[in-house]
Amino acid sequence: QVQLVESGGGWVQPGGSLRLSCAASGFTFANAFMSWYRQAPGKERELVATITITGSSLNLLDSVKGRFTISRDNRVNTVYLQMNTLKPEDTAVYYCYVPRFGSWGQGTQVTVSS
Q1: Is 111 exposed, middle or buried (0-12, 13-18, 19+ CB in 10 A)?
Q2: How does pLDDT run across 81-95, given as a tens digit for each residue?
Q3: Which helix (H) or strand (E) holds 1?
């Protein structure tokens, strides 16, 4: 059974940083692409970034380029989203997703405000 558990969200002032983590279980993590999505209030869910099995970043959202970095650690079955220079428009629920199985985590709230 695929399970994805996100953590690391919270409140931060504009210009601050957060690192999100997604702990995966129930499948062979090292063989799976992983993605982060986000959904702001009143908006559709959007893809933020995908990471390949070799650790390359794909599909990075234009508005986060240069600020967000996706990475993975196959030793601990975890994918990360390092978010720097956060802006109020980054406020959203952030979700971990494994495309191979179509499975989502429960989401973690990120709020950027002064």
Answers
A1: middle
A2: 999 999 999 999 999
A3: none
